[in-house]
Structure of Two-component response regulator:
Amino acid sequence: MSRISLVLVENHDLTRVGLLAALKQVEDIEVLGAASDGHQGVKMIEETNPSVAIIALDLQI
């Protein structure tokens, strides 16, 4: 099975840290990065081109 590349965009620190810890435990997921706001998240997604982006719904871009 191929690895899934992923970027996480979440503005709540505790949620972001917890999700990152859980995602890094999954062997088939490669976490390319995490952003704490919408602007940083869009930039990271454009630069890394992940196969999946998990984005908080309440962010402003």
Observations:
- The radius of gyration is 11 Å.
- Residues 4-55 form a domain with the Rossmann fold fold (CATH 3.40.50.2300).
